[in-house]
Amino acid sequence: MKTVINCETNEVIQRELNKAEKDQQKIDESAISAAKAEAEAKAHAKAALLDRLGITAAEAKLLLS
Question: Which residues contact 1 (CB under 8 A, 6 or more apart)?
Fold first, then answer.
């Protein structure tokens, strides 16, 4: 469902997505999922590195500043 709001007339229209919009929505959802997975992988890698070094994130930040 898509909501279209005309700010000049305050008209609110709710309608179903057309094929192009549905296709774009699937592409966007895939991109968001990939970005979340990448961010999670980076966070796990960072945590693993800090664990191997035996330091905390705060200590690493101090070392790098």
Answer: 14, 15, 16, 17
CB 15 within 8 A of CB 25: no
Instruction: State pLDDT tens for residues 43-57.
Output: 999 999 999 999 999
Query: On the CB side of 33, how many CA atoms lie within 13 Å of its CA?
Result: 6
In single-letter form, the type of residue at position 20 comes to A
Locate all alpha helices (DSSP H) within 1-65, ordered by sequence: 19-53, 57-64
**Tokens standing for residue 2:** 């898509």
pTM for this prediction: 0.65
Residue 6 burial by CB count (10 A; 0-12/13-18/19+): exposed, middle or buried? Answer: exposed
